[in-house]
Amino acid sequence: MAETAARALGVVGDDRTARLPGAWRLGLLRGAMEIRMFFRLREQVVFTFAFPIVFLFLFASIFHDDMADTGSTASQYYVASMTAAGIMSTSFQSLGISIAIERDDKVLRRLRGTPMPPAAYFLGKIWLVLATGLMETAALLVFGAAVYDVDLPSGLGGWLTLGWIFVLGITGCALLGIAISSVPKSGKSATSVVVLPFLVLQFISGVYILIDTVPNWMLTVGALFPLKWMCQGLRGVFLPDAAAALEPAGSWEYGRIALVLGAWCIGGLVLCLLTFRWKSRNDG
């Protein structure tokens, strides 16, 4: 079975003496397979892309008033915040649950028994996260621009800012998702273990509640995690400069955002190396 799985990924062929492809190529092949498998599950695809748009519509419909002296509306605020939440959903939540289920179903154990380098498995997951994250972000921005008149960046600087926030944010959240996948005792409990902290983070990071109305102690806790900083950075990209007055520091703090998200990329990698397991706890 291990040989069959390896051959399916292109790791081995009929000539067993042939040189094995490298981890980068296998990671790309694995990523393509992960993306195909994702789109074969239509219910999962609909939920992944429709969930943040539905929540954006609900919150923007309920809180649609102008934000005083900022030149923007609450609806536009939620476009930025829900985009950040969507990035974390396709990375942290998606990987935390899917990897835990694959471990419980012994998929990881079988893959570990093939000649495929371990790095190829994680590269495949990264390609999946990048593809789904980009598509969900694009869908939210198109919806926000069409329905709520959100101004997309007009210059290269704005798009570059969006780009590095996206890359650092999705990388840190993906690594955190891989790390938390080792916490559930079984695949059945993975959803509860992963979704609950993500839901709490959304409330204390200014996703569902305007940042100037969140209690200070909640903001302090939220500031320890990447979601709060992604929200703040994306508000800086899509909202007028006057809206920075609503932030706790009165500015977008791009330098601090880059520092925190970069620290989570490094810290998340360390957590993955320390906690990741190929076998479930029941396997010993």
Automatic annotation (TrEMBL):
InterPro entries: ABC2_TM, ABC2_TM_bact-type, Nod_factor_ABC_transporter
Domain ABC transmembrane type-2: 43-279
A GO cellular component entry from the record: plasma membrane
Transmembrane segments: 45-64, 76-101, 122-147, 159-180, 192-211, 257-276
Cellular compartments annotated: Cell membrane; Membrane
Origin: domain of life: Bacteria
Recorded topology in the membrane: Multi-pass membrane protein
GO molecular function annotations of the record: ABC-type transporter activity
Keywords: Cell membrane, Membrane, Transmembrane, Transmembrane helix, Transport
Organism: Actinacidiphila bryophytorum
Protein name: Transport permease protein
Pfam families noted in UniProt: ABC2_membrane (PF01061)
Family per similarity comment: Belongs to the ABC-2 integral membrane protein family.
